[in-house]
Design brief:
Radius of gyration: 18 Å
Shape: globular
Oligomer: single chain
Number of strands: 12
Largest sheet: 12 strands, antiparallel
Distance between the termini: 35 Å
Number of helices: 4
Length: 239
């Protein structure tokens, strides 16, 4: 397990002072980035090797949302690597009480950037991480099924601020785009994301929204109806 301590910042909270979902997702992305950098297999190492970790799927279960100035512990647990896949858990706890606030699971693919296809995780990278037992949590299926007939919403043009160091739309940006379709004062208790195709600068994203009771699904497609990402929110009504 790799972890760091922090406090919830004003720039990360919503109108009610709660940590936003993108804020939580950023903490989870940061902690695994910190671990990789400290292990010597971070972004510069991968760039020199012509490699990149590409996220396949997220599942984040929120048990209790931290609020402004709360002290939290953010941890990541790489628990398996095989073939071209890597598996990671995440956990956020209250630093003072040890209460678990959120848990997460993620699946990653090692990509050869020159060939633009998956490749086996190099032995040097596998040796850089100490694998641990996966968290005791409910593991949803990776594939997200959208039910019913969706409605198309207004197009989103990919701008420079959407991109990460791989020049692709950052994983969290897809979630932020999808959150615009949540009803006001809705609390997300589970978020699932399935990533299929990378959007790049100037791509046009066409959101298609699927609504069910307490579940909102959003397909983020291109103009050819090919899917970049599918985001699913399990919700409840907040104050």
């Amino acid at each position: 397990m790799y972890q760091f301590e922090t406090r919830i910042r004003y720039s990360e909270v919503d109108k009610n002072g709660r940590l936003t979902l993108p804020g939580m997702l950023n903490y989870f992305q940061d902690v695994c980035t910190f671990q990789s950098e400290d292990a010597g297999v971070g972004t510069l190492y991968l760039r020199r090797k012509g490699l990149a970790w590409v996220l396949n799927a997220w599942q984040i279960d929120i048990l209790k949302t931290p609020v402004l100035c709360d002290a939290v512990q953010v941890a990541t647990i790489p628990y398996d690597m095989k073939g071209f896949l890597g598996y990671r858990n995440f956990c956020m706890k209250d630093s003072r009480t040890g209460e678990v606030l959120a848990v997460a699971n993620s699946i990653w693919t090692m990509m050869d950037l020159e060939k633009q296809r998956p490749c086996r995780v190099p032995e040097e990278i596998m040796q850089a991480y100490e694998l641990s037992e996966r968290l005791d949590m409910e593991y949803a299926k990776r594939k997200i099924l959208l039910e019913g007939e969706g409605r198309k919403e207004g197009n989103i043009v990919v701008l420079a601020h959407h991109l990460d160091t791989n020049r692709h739309v950052n994983n969290g940006q897809y979630v932020q785009m999808a959150m615009d379709f949540l009803k006001p004062d809705t609390l997300v208790v589970r978020m699932r994301a399935e990533y299929k195709k990378s959007a790049v600068l100037s791509d046009v994203i066409v959101p298609v929204v699927y609504e069910r009771k307490d579940i909102l699904g959003i397909a983020l497609n291109n103009s050819k109806e090919e899917t970049f990402a599918i985001i699913e929110f399990h919700t409840t009504t907040g104050d």
